[in-house]
Amino acid sequence: MCRHLAYLGEPLAPGAVLAEPPYALVHQSWAPRRQRYGTVNADGFGLGWYADGDERPARYRRAGPVWADEAFADLARVVRTRALLAAVRSATAGCAPGEAAAAPFTDGRRLFSHNGALPGWPAAYGPLAATLPAAELMALEARSDSALLWALVQARLQAGAELGEALADTVREAAKYGPARLNLLLTDGSSIAATAWGDTLFHRSGPGVVVASEPYDDAPGWTEVPDRSLLLATPAGITVHPIDSPDA
Hints:
The protein is α+β, with helices and mostly antiparallel strands. The protein has 7 helices and 13 strands. The chain has a single domain, classed as Glutamine Phosphoribosylpyrophosphate, subunit 1, domain 1 (4-Layer Sandwich), CATH 3.60.20.10. Helix 6 packs across helix 7. Pathway: Amino-acid biosynthesis; ergothioneine biosynthesis.
């Protein structure tokens, strides 16, 4: 599985939401509280963030566990950002290891993460992969289920879909091929889209908006997103919509 988090709001140091809270994402890399599949997220991690005046995000990704990376601790302390997406990885069997397989994935101004798995990967999802042109498959950043899902999302975005539409349509399509777990997280630096499909997802507002696999503290205000839902968030507010089953 994995754990991930996105933030929008006033400038802050990434560590304020990723490291300092008692059950922050760094803590979730070795002791998640709500994770339904897997126990440790030590197969890589990544942080993507936006600097004022530049819509294209920066990324810092590594193949090892986040708790062992001193450079990440410094970066998370001194950088300031109005928007970020971060993830810690528990690799799916059959998926490639390494930094290239760690979220967030990026394209232009967008950052993407997948919390979940495609059981039976890769054989069961060959027909899903075949819906993409061969050139796009050869250009995948990593040989992994998450990279394939990102390519499917990208194809929809490039065809003109909005963030939420691209995620929901990808989830519906991927769910046709097996009991997939498809918690997807996507931001363009000014809004967030996320799906809850097979694992936990929470949100909290004020100050800023946080969307996360699980709460990073026990303070009030966290709201769980129902399974099979699409969340859309901006600093102005959050809406949640059901995702119809692909069999409906």
